[in-house]
């Protein structure tokens, strides 16, 4: 390995300085402020603060609404990650089999990722709105009692589909790149040995996609925890009856709507710790089962 020698000892620090400044300003400083505020109890107008230590945290874990948000978030994250990755993998393998206009199909499948989360939520809300939605009208004509504004399970299904649809394009892009990196000689050798169709996919293709799948698993987990706020806010607003109120949406409700700043800060700290711990767990244990070739 060739060692890089800089002519000036200060130059390496100048090169990494912009990234260090951005990391400090947009991560370490807000995180430190959240930790500080999580140990304080403030009035809604911010005129008086009282140090309460860990009482905000203990109150959260004694709150049934917060524990319910925990369960909602776990289900929502797993459902969104599994659905978006499964559909993206199916579309990527199907696009690889297209002979003509392959690049056109890939471009069309990537476009939805450019849609903002709030816009994606509004699109799905219009399609499945009980009052004006076209697909909701078809569901009712088919005898299905569809009303996500009143039924919590249907509201959860709607936000899962909307969040998954928003993320499919991102996953599709990486799965296509992973499929293109697989040596064609391996697939041809497997075909000669009699491995065809589904058997060849599960025995050859999917194991070689393990690094890509692992990376997307981490990214989709973080996406479901944080980046789905706009979708939930646009589609259900956490309702009905808090059936779609995830942890990140509860932070917004308690902090910006109910003005319980101490509890909201404590929730953001817990959410940050959960995501960091989950990511570390995936890299520590899940990566051992990933085979890089």
TrEMBL record:
Membrane topology category: Multi-pass membrane protein
Annotated TM spans: 12-31, 70-92, 113-138, 158-180, 201-226, 265-286
Annotated localization: Cell inner membrane; Cell membrane
InterPro entries in the cross-refs: MetI-like (IPR000515), MetI-like_sf (IPR035906), UgpAE/MalFG_permease (IPR050809)
Listed Pfam families: BPD_transp_1
Domain ABC transmembrane type-1: 70-282
Keyword DNA damage: no
Keywords per UniProt: Cell inner membrane, Cell membrane, Membrane, Transmembrane, Transmembrane helix, Transport
Predominant cellular place of this UniProt entry's protein: membrane
Keyword Cell membrane: yes
Domain of life: Bacteria
Protein purpose: Part of the ABC transporter complex UgpBAEC involved in sn-glycerol-3-phosphate (G3P) import. Probably responsible for the translocation of the substrate across the membrane.
PANTHER family per the UniProt record, alphabetical: BLL4140 PROTEIN, SN-GLYCEROL-3-PHOSPHATE TRANSPORT SYSTEM PERMEASE PROTEIN UGPA
UniProt similarity note: Belongs to the binding-protein-dependent transport system permease family.
Subunit structure: The complex is composed of two ATP-binding proteins (UgpC), two transmembrane proteins (UgpA and UgpE) and a solute-binding protein (UgpB).
The protein's name in its UniProt record: sn-glycerol-3-phosphate transport system permease protein UgpA
UniProt source species: Pseudochrobactrum kiredjianiae
